[in-house]
Each structure stands twice: as structure tokens, then as C-alpha cells.
Amino acid sequence: MSGIWVVLEERNGRIGRMSWEALAAGHTLGEHLNLPVQAVLPGAQTDSLAAEAATKKVARVVRLEHASMATYTSDAFTLALEQFIRAERPDYMVFPHTYQVRDYAPALAARFGQVLIGDVTGIGAGPDLHPTDKDPSAGTPVFVRQLMQGRLSGEYRPSGGGICFVSVQSGAFRRDQTESVSATVETFTPKIEAAQIRTKPGQPFRGSAQTVDLGSAQFIVSVGRGIKEAENLPIVQELAAALGAELAASRPICDSGWLPIERQVGSSGQTVSPKLYLAVGISGAIQHLVGMKGSQCVVAINRDPDAPIFEIADYGIVGDLFEVVPALSEAVKAARQ
Amino acid sequence: MKIIVAIKQVPERDAQVHINSTGKWIEEGDLQWALNESDAYALEEALQLKEKHGGEVIVVSAGPERVGSTIREALAKGADRAIHIDCDDLGQLDALGVARLLSAAIAPESPDLTLTGLQSDDLGYGQTGVILAELLGLPHASLILHVEKTEAGIAVKRELEEGWFQTIELPLPAVLTIQSGGNKLRYATLMGIKKAKTKEIRRITSHELGSAAAPVVILDRVFAPQKQKSTQILGGSPKEAAAALVEKLKFEARVL
Questions:
Q1: Which of A145, A156, A314, B212 is deepest in the core (most CB within 10 A)?
Q2: CB hemisphere CA count around B214 (13 angstroms)
Q3: Cα distance from B146 to chain A (closest Cα, Å)?
């Protein structure tokens, strides 16, 4: 067995932020288990990316390189990583929980009779914390991930041995900035035949002309399912106007066509970091939180005191948004006069 | 086109959840149940494909007896028949275990297309469809918003991150996981609800499907999430809370 391997993902010619966070998660695991942390880079042209990876805290970097991986397909990536894993026999495979990883890692794990523990937010020491515990899984770390749209957390444990596959949620681990001496870079060439790739991916395209740049907005009023009807939107529009804020929304609002998709905040929409993010009737599913948790000050208005949005809010008002929002608009107007 | 849609019954969105006495799952006794949201979009996509190209839509769902109400809802919306994988221990299975059950039920039907929702609103693994494709030996695409039939198979619109999309061509048979928002969901009509009563629901037990393997991943403990920030809850009447908030934003957070 060869310790921990972290899969790094290329994003616009660089290694993506989430991949560095996955590497940090790999180090957390490595420290628990006293195992080496290494990186593997799937792609068609990974030389410069590998050189960048080699300056980080990794024992080895492997370029998993094949011409057929120039554009992502689940078939090519699964085949390549399958062959790599059979050769390297890792203890742990750690991935960033990107859309790409979500597309192939579950199938890859299944190929080894394993299940990906996906979207992990924390890694803890397992039952080995209790030395009297004769649990055969002693020494196995536990992985925390969210359940019920963030209302609960769950602690997962691999059982039965074999390779453990884990993917790491965006922003859950802090990337390690320390540079180190150059790691060795090797190349692993998988065997992939053209006929094994069954899907034909097209070039990425933008959904619509982006006319709203939420990313640079200082104030954002964001609205969620709690607004109930499109006809009720004017009350949040009024609050946004009073604050001089951009109006944004969680996914269900854009899915329903009540606001254009370019105003959507979250993993499938825009990532924002305003001075003030005011979440109105948003419960705070993880897909939304990853898009706004970098905000300087978060305010949540929600009738459910257990809504996960309150876990990351600085200020909260538990109540009926149809009463609170108009009152807040008035208070803001009064303060601004 | 013969289309199978794998659907899941999940606790209703606004349900108050309480951890049960085992500490490993929630109290299910007094919960209200609903069709998982992205599965509703998968069903809608299937029904629209059938309307355009003809064929049959079959829903398959695993779970205890209560799942029947969600299956009937799908039939009322227009699915032609259903397969209910009757099992009381769904919670003990991991994603691979559930996908094995579904795959054993789906394979004999040899559908052209198998759809699932992107992920469930309760466990949120987002893996069932992808593992299903692997077990069935079929190509797949995930996070799909739209399906178009082509000469050679299908072309699908896949959602990427941060507002990007891509088109992927796949041969049939194939498996897709459907993202929410691609279509407008239909409601069941009175006629549909009436018709649903005469439609076939075939029950198979998980034992008949013979795929009970020990889980390789175990959910050991469920707990309330730890707060990342200490939230100041502002109380009082809406007017008082609003005034207090403006004060805080101005003088404490200094963002106004």
C-alpha cells in the first residue's frame, strides 16, 4: 500500500483552488495515520502543472498523462485512474469535490467495490481515541459530511478494508501555503483506446450574457424559497434598493424562472464575497453556502431557527420575512436619511 | 424510447428533524414524505421525451411500504408503470448497495435510457446514477438539464460550475443524472390520479434481487452541526429587530 494520493484537477490551465484544499485534507489524514501524501495529475499535458505541484508539500507527483484526456470524459478519467490505482495500491484516494469528480469518482470507487465518501467537511480521529476500545476499525479516521441539506452532520467510517475514496468540500480545508523542496515527478501512461470513450463532450459555453457581476457587489440581498411566490419579490427588491444592493437568489428561485440564472449564488452560480450578504428566506443548503461564505458580514432572516444559514450568519432574525423585510426596508431608509 | 426513472422518497423539505435514540439516524415516525426534488425533474424530462418520441416511462423506487405514495404520485403525473423494491433496511445500505438493488431491478427491463435525480435531499450522496451506470456497463452523463434525441443517440446539456454549460453526445442505452430547473414541473391532474389507480406497480423484495453485501461505508453517528460563527439573534417585534439590526450593521459590523 502506498499511502495517500490526492487527485489534482486542472482548471483554466492551472491547478484549481479546491485541489489545493484537497491536498490540505490529504495532509490532515497523513498526520493522523502517519502516511506519505502524494499527488496525481490526470490530463493530456501536465508538465507545467506537475512542476507547480512539485513545489508543494508532497512526497511524489505523478503525471497521469494520455492524449485522450485532453478533454474530460468520465470513461477516460475512470480508466486512467483505475490503472494507476491498481499499480500504486493506495490506502486513500482524496479528491476535490468538483462537478468533474462527482461525475466519475463514484464509478471509479465502485470499480474497486468501494463507495466514495463525498463532500467531506472534516476528518477526525476514529475509535483509536479510546485505547480500551477493541474495535477492529481502531485507527480508521472518521469523515464528517452534511445530511438533510445541512440540517445535520453525519460521521462516516469506512468498513471492511480496501482503498478508501474521499472527496473534499470546497472551502472546508485551508490550503497550505508552505513551499517545500522539489518533489520527484514521474509519469504514468495509462492504456486507453479511442473506442473505450463512449461519450463526446462539446466545448463549454456560457448560458447567457452576463450583465450582472455579483462578484464585485458590496451589498447583496439574496432571496430563497421562503419568498413563496414570484409576486412577493417586490418586498426584497425594495430592501435591495434601500441598501443600494444587488439582488441575488438561491437556486430554486432561478429554477422557477422568478429571477434570471445570472443572479444565482452558489456552486452552480456565482461566488460572491460582499461586505454585507443579507439572506432572506434561504435555508442555507451547502450548494448555496459555498457561493457566499466568504462574505464579510452575513445576515439571515428565516422563520426556522434551525435553518443551517444561521450556522454561518453573524446576525439573525427569526421570524416571518413578510413582516421583517418591510420593517427592515423602513429602518434602512430612516438610517440613510 | 423506453425510459426508467429511479426515484426516491425523502422527508419533506420543511420537516422538523430529530435524531433518533440510536444516534445514527432521524426519527421517521411523524415525518411527512415527498418525492425528491431532482427526481421530480428526472421524471418530468422522461415524460416530455415520451410525449415527443413515444415509448414508455417506468418508475422504480426502493424503500418500505410508505414509498407507495410517492410511486402513485409519479404514476398520476404520467408514468406508465412502476417497480417497487420493497425493503425496510434502505438506511443500512451504502450508495453501492442501493445502486446494486436498482441495477438488478432495471437490467432485465433493458431500457434505452435510465434517469435519476442528481442527488437526494436527505443523504445527498449524489452518486446513485453514476454507480448505476458503472454496474449496468453503460455510458453516463451527470448534472443534465436537457435531453435531445439525435440520429446516433442523445445530446444532453450538462451544467458545469459557475454558469457554464456543455453539450455531450452519448449513444443509447445510457444513464443520466438530472439537475433541477431544466423544465417546469407538471402537477398531477384529477384524471391522472384516477388513471394511476389502474396502473401496474410490481413489488419485488430486496431479497429476490439477491444483492445484500455488507456496506463498505457506515454512517456511524448523526449530530447537530457545529456553528461556525456565533450568531447574534435579534429578537423583539419585526420593527424592533429591524431597528436593532440596522444599529448593529452600522456601529458593530460597520458595513452600512
A1: A145
A2: 5
A3: 13
